[in-house]
Recover the amino acids of this structure.
């Protein structure tokens, strides 16, 4: 495995509509492993192939889903032992498509490894269903809600040449470094 260089704006590869993946051979497997390593090293919670200069429709995501119960008990100040955090899950999605999206939309502040130093407030569907192929070409369907759904929408946008600053209601330079970059 090897780290790949993360491409930043204004590189035109980030503006191209990426091509569907058709070959699931060794080159793709190496690319996927490199993307996972590059995402972890960045660090980031998602990375789309155009961000490493490859105009193909695939993305990797690694994220631990939020535990709503923990958040609620923290908000109430209840003295119950919090459950251990959910483990991070790794997703490799090839030729992903959003097949269902909630009417409910939510605002959130996101950043991007390809646009260092900026964050923006972006409205996203609260929940989505995605169909894709896994790294071996097998069809998979998955549901995502909350921040995970946001990451999926951000990565799928990258495959269509769209970046968050195109969609953001406002964009600014944060004082502190953002950890959840995608
Ligand atoms: Zn991004």
């Amino acid at each position: 495995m090897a780290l790949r260089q993360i491409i930043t704006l204004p590189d035109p590869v980030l503006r191209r509509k990426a091509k569907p993946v058709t070959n699931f051979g060794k080159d793709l497997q190496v690319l996927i492993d490199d993307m996972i390593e590059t995402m972890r090293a960045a660090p980031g919670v998602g990375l789309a192939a155009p961000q490493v200069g490859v105009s193909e429709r695939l993305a990797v995501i690694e994220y631990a889903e939020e535990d709503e119960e923990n958040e609620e008990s923290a908000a109430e100040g209840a003295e119950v032992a919090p459950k251990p955090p959910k483990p991070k899950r790794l997703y490799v999605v090839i030729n992903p498509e959003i097949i269902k999206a909630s009417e409910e939309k939510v605002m959130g502040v996101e950043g991007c490894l390809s646009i260092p130093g900026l964050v923006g407030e972006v409205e996203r569907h609260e929940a989505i269903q995605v169909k894709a192929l896994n790294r071996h070409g097998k069809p998979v369907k998955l549901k995502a809600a909350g921040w995970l759904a946001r990451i999926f929408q951000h990565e799928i946008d990258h495959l269509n040449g769209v970046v968050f600053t195109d969609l953001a209601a406002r964009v600014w330079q944060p004082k502190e470094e953002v950890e959840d970059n995608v």
User: Anything to note?
Assistant: Residues 112-114, 154, 158, 182 surround zinc ion (CB under 6 Å).
